[in-house]
Design a protein that fits this description.
It contains 4 helices and 29 strands. The protein has about 425 residues and is mainly beta. The strands form 7 sheets. The protein has a 5-stranded mixed sheet with strand order 3-1-4-7-6, with no helix packed on it. The two termini are about 25 Å apart. The N terminus and C terminus are likely disordered.
Length: about 425
Amino acid sequence: MNHSPRIRTVLSCTLLVVALGAGTAACGSDGHPLSAKPYDAASQIAFNGPAGSGRKADPDKPLEVTAEGGDGRITDVTATDQMGRHVAGELSADGSRWHSTAPLAAGAHYTLRVSTEDDEGAPGRKVMTFDTREPEKKRRLKVTFGPEAGKYGVGQPVTAKLSAPVRAKEARAVVERALKVQSQPAAEGSWHWVDSRTLHYRPKEYWPTHATITVRSNLEGVKVTDRLWGADTKPLKLTTGDRIVAVTDASSHWMTVYRNGEEINSIPVTTGKPGYSTRNGIKVVLGKEYVVRMTSASIGASDFYDKMVYYATRVTDSGEYVHAAPWSVGSQGYANTSHGCTGMSTGDAAWFYETVRPGDLVEVVGSAGADMDHFGNGYGDWNVDWKEWRKGSALQKDTKAAKKAQKTARLRPQAV
């Protein structure tokens, strides 16, 4: 077969096309084509991209590989950059076309590996490299993951703070696809856009106990908008401990603390009195302070107080704590007398302080107060049901489309 190189004239160097013609490879010693080593498919490939021309590919344009001639097909395509990051793509059922489904990075060096197969099953292979150009106008989008690396309770959300607002859904989808969260053991989860600069990630259920959670970004060099490109991001590693959940029933004035589903303590408490009722809902421990000065001015209370409070475990940004309240021991277990915090004896508060860590969960039920805010006053993430949480993802429609495509592929007749 004639394997002389073919040259195409192209109008643009921004679309990378690999044309694969049919070919015959030498057979192995037993004459069966599948026993042969992959032949060099260079003579069957017309590559009209920028390779060897001194020009660079436009990262805005998709990468595309097509088979030509009608008597061969593509069996596999991989494209990776110099950091080993793979470009997501889709191969048609008949092997005639592969195209990238994720944007290329700007200013990157890519290696493209194409595997083919002729009508007799003989394998072909071609490896090519190309570069993408830098954006003309650079404005880098930086991502900062939170919280700080360390050990947390199973309720700790992961956060991503952006250095610039991202409003368009298409741009948000680009960002979200690049932010990767992995848990070992595995846990189903999703990002949720809190606002144009903030994302939270949480599992459908709480994190597994004693899990390792890794968070990273593949956004570096990727175009987000016409004037915004991803920057390098420091990865994050978290671990979880036991599952600690403290449930406070404001109507019965008792807190029950559970470790991994088993009760480990029951504590008499007092919560917010009328006009200062404690918020209902699930809250995440934000931090612990051995001593905190609490004053009536800090919450605008009409009755004056100024106290040094010990063993204070914070659960909201607005100043709600679980803390020692020796002045209200007579009411604990019987009445609600605080200005919104959960008070208990000094000994019980010390035990609670030593038992919980940031990321553990405190749930209040039976209060006459308002519900915990979902965002903006600590972490109210767990008060959003999973269906609603998923609606905050820019990829939700993508997920539905993918399921529809998978269903269509299953129904499509397969070649034999």
